[in-house]
Amino acid sequence: xxxxxxxxxxxxxxxxxxxxxxxxxxxxxxxxxxxxxxxxxxxxxxxxxxxxxxxxxxxxxxxxxxxxxxxxxxxxxxxxxxxxxxxxxxxxxxxxxxxxxxxxxxxxxxxxxxxxxxxxxxxxxxxxxxxxxxxxx
Length: 137
Prior knowledge:
- It contains seven helices and no strands.
- The protein is mainly α.
């Protein structure tokens, strides 16, 4: 599935999930939840409940979801920040993630509009192309 995703227009990761799991008419194609769940290594009922109830992806689920839909690095960062915002337990943490999301929205060039494949740091590390040292400067 290769939809044009303007991820910075979303304020909830669940809205991104709903968008990507629906067709042009807003309907969910048959079997899409099962395929996604297999890819994410979770039960299909978990994905269904996620869309209807107040439960959330784990960070691992969010990363797997982004891989399934071929998010760019910046799309993945934005998606995970949306998740962490919704999972935040206090106002200070919520404000922190809101500021991160605002930075992405204010700099659209940092968050590509389409789900084009990009080489990400995880792939570079696992393939041995990247140094094992991380520069935090």
